[in-house]
Amino acid sequence: MTVKLYSFGKFSDVVDPSPFCFKLDSFLRLAKIDYETMEFSLSSFGKAPKGKIPFIEDDGKFIADSNLIIEYLSEKYKVNLNKDLSEKENGISHSFCRMLDENTYWVALYGRWFEPDNFEIVKYFFFNKIPKLIRPIAIAKAKKNAIARINGQGIGLHSKDEIYKIGMQDMQALSDLLGSDDYFFNKETPSLLDITAHSYIACIILKEFNSPLKDYVLKLENLIKFNDRMNKYLYS
Ligand SMILES: N[C@@H](CCC(=O)N[C@@H](CS)C(=O)NCC(=O)O)C(=O)O
Questions:
Q1: Same domain for 130 and 194?
Q2: Of 101, 140, 201, 231, which has the maximum CB count within 10 A?
């Protein structure tokens, strides 16, 4: 049975501009699960069980949230990407994945929606299929929602410098944890933290977007080499 993956789809030279969708795509590849990516349109949000993307359809069931989907599929297909991790490594992996999904993500989102040049690209990618007449209304509504979410989460209440510093600290911690290893925890093959970290690094350094966070990450040589290694492992 083929899993249907509802994501945003290819953007620039990455499989998806959303780290949640990117991570899930990497998981499906690594786990060798048969899947097809459904074409994105704004109406995909209408089908989304929790109003967010990604989600999957499997055996007639719709399941939302990248991490819950990974848990569901890992159980169903008896896959454990963290099988070689010790309890301590598992604990560290869990904390870093949460840091990326629940903290770093918001800094990246801020960069996409609040840097005017980046926002022009966001507008084009997400809204170019919407009829021209109603496009400005759809964009204004989406921006209002993004501001509400960013402020509601709390990150948007900080100054621009503070926001980027928060993201830089996360990426520095990731770089420190990886050190000179090929994969996190010096394993032979990627684990959950590898695919999660890869999705964030790749999305932050996308050539179309610019931000102080991107500039910072580009200087973290081990993360850039890791990004290349993961691209080769999964996407070439
Ligand atoms: N916890 C969710 C987060 C998914 C998420 O925030 N997706 C964003 C796109 S990157 C979204 O759908 N945002 C639309 C909204 O919040 O209205 C996951 O891991 O899948």
A1: yes
A2: 201
